[in-house]
Structure formats: structure tokens, C-alpha cells
Amino acid sequence: MLDLSGQTILVTGASRGIGKAIAETCARAGAAVAVHYGHSADAALEVADTCGSDAHLFQADLTDLDATDALFNAVADTYGRVDGLVLNAGVARHMPLDATTDDWHTDWQNTMQVNLRAPELLCRHALRHFRNQGGGRIVGIASRAAFRGDTLDYMSYAASKAGLVALMRSIARGAGSDSVKAFTIAPGFTRTDMAQDFIDEYGPGIVRDDLALNDLTEPADLAPMAALLLSGHADHATGCTIDMNAGSYVH
């Protein structure tokens, strides 16, 4: 098993889904996990309990600029150092083309704030912190939609995830000399609440007919890859994007 002993890992959106699986996997590997959540305090507390006594809760509404800006430093102040940052929190707003301009603007701003602006702010603080301590690792949870696009109603989601991929690649290119590594995991459909909303809207065929494997990806299928990237055993893959989508790219 991978050993993350001595590392402090901040996982955003850790109260459920992929973030929960990554937080719990990192904790089992020995890391102290900073469990970020937006609104689901009870669920986040359960995750923190599972992650052990070294886990602490950090609430921040990522649609709020000031709250987002304060999050990383709050974690660093609590633990003394941060070794890894997992940018998992995300939203997918249904934005039909016939929505009003005001509604479209609100949902676009919200999507970009959570999926791209919040990661950018967190990375800004992380880069300064990592430079001072001699290095660190960042894992961005993007989406296959960043590369193949999405439906018209979710094109803002695809655009935000494409931006996250570019952010990770820029950090990998620009901060490598400071021993900072950045990676992207691009899931396809994964059994989460967000995916279920999409399935409820478009029907199960949109998932089933698009997979090369027989089973829908689970959050637990993605978590070991995140732990590997955080471990230091894959540092020369910095800048890479790892597709984990049950073969839907090649099906």
C-alpha cells in the first residue's frame, strides 16, 4: 500500500463522492487529511471521523471569494504545513439555451467560480507555500468533458474543466523548478450525485451505451490514482492527464 505518512493533504469537496473516496484513501495511507466542505457539515463530519484523529474539518463556500481565499491558509495554520492539494469540488449547472440571460449569467458565474476560480485561488496560495517548504503536489479532478465537450446544456461545465486542465499544465510547466508537481485526473461518468442528476435528465442509456466496460466507474476506482500521484512515485508524470472513464474514449 502507498505510504503517505507525514503528509498533510487538503481535499476540496470531501464530504461526498470522489472527494470523500480520495480523503479516506489518503487517510488509510497515513496522511493527515484536511476535509473541506461547503454546506454538508454532517456528511463531512462522518468523513473526518473515518479519516481519524489527524483529520480536521474546514468549511468554505467556494462561491464566496473571501472564503475561498482564506481556506488554504486556514489549513496551513492548523497543520503547520500542507504537502498536497486535491482540487475536487465542482458543480454542473443545467443551463438550457432558452434560459434568460440573467439566469444564464448567474449559472455561468457560479460554475466558473467553483470549478475554476476557486482552484486558481487555492493554487496561488499553494504555490507560495510549496515554494517556501521545498515542494508539493496538486491533483486536479477534471472531466472527459474538458476534451470531448458535453451537451449544450452543460457546455459551461466542460469549459470550466478545460480551464482546470490548462491550470494544472501551467503549474507543471512553470513551477517544476520549485519542486511542485501538478497532475490531472479526468473521470467520465462516475457514480456520484452529480452524475445521477445527469442520468435522471437524459436517461441511463447516456451512460450505459458509452462505456467499454460493464460497470459504471465508482469513486473508489479513482481514489487510488490520486493517492499515487500524491505519493511521489509518479512525479515524472507531472503535467499529465490520466483518463479514467471506463473506456468511453475508445468505445
UniProtKB/TrEMBL annotation:
InterPro entries: NAD(P)-bd_dom_sf, SDR, SDR_fam. CDD domains: SDR_c. Belongs to the short-chain dehydrogenases/reductases (SDR) family. This is 3-oxoacyl-ACP reductase. It comes from Longimonas halophila.
